[in-house]
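Fold this: Cytochrome c oxidase subunit 2
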Amino acid sequence: MQGLAWSLSLVLMAGVALIFLRVVAGASQPGGDAGTIAAAGYRWRDRLFWVVIVAGVAISFATLRKWPIPGHAAAAATPDVIVRAVGHQWRWELDRDTVRPGELVEFEVTSADVNHGFAIYRPEKSRILAQAQAMPGYTNKLQVRFDEPGDYEVLCLEYCGLAHHAMRAVIKVRADS
Ligand code: CUA
């Protein structure tokens, strides 16, 4: 589904770019005396235009080539543990909250009401380790391997109402669990 959306976006963007190029090509043909005076300026403008286009395509290709987000390709692996995570206004419901370091944990993320953002933070410095959207009617799979033991905080990344900030859970990663 994401692949389809991506392909469709590319085709539409190409269409818009073609129309844009046609308009620019039509507009850059100067007529009359004023045109001859301005011709040199137009030439430079046209060159600059192509430099911007080529640079834009090159930068987009270099940065978007790895789409979808790294990690999705690995999501086909068979998980060791499956944890169902359901977002509610305003709490997280996890059917288990303790896993072992090193095992491949698959979170099946969904929501019972509105959209939430399921985000797992590393114990140190509260950096995000992984995140997925919690959507009503959909289950998004998120595979995570916790390398270090510790308490990993789960917070909500999408504003979902008054007590959005209170949506907090903890995943305990324990070697002896
Ligand atoms: Cu749930 Cu914000």
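The first helix runs from residue 2 to 27. Residues 125 and 162 are 26 Å apart (CA to CA).
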